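Record type: monomer structure entry
Structure origin: computed from sequence
Chain ID: A
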Amino acid sequence: QVQLVESGGGLVQAGGSLRLSCAASGRYRMGWFRQTPGKEREFVARISSSGLTTYYADSVKGRFTISRDNAKNTVYLQMNSLKPEDTAVYYCAADPRPTSTGTYEYWGQGTQVTVSS
């Protein structure tokens, strides 16, 4: 059973920074997504199990950085230059399958990020 525990959300002013953490029960392909009320969940970033490959949504490229510490089975999302439109519930997701399908089987509980203008 894959378990994911997120932390690090909060309230920050526009232009500020936050770092989200997602502690996993193992080493998996991981992604971050976000969702606002009334909208579909949106992809933010993903990272391979080795940490060598990352990919970002255009909306966060250059501002957000996904990374991982495999000794701690933890994935991070460093968010800089935050904008009010980054306000959302952020979810981490894990895919433990041996081959990537572009989808994720397990999801964290979500952490709220609010960016004030």
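Annotation 1: Residues 73 and 107 are 15 Å apart (CA to CA).
Annotation 2: The mean pLDDT is 96.
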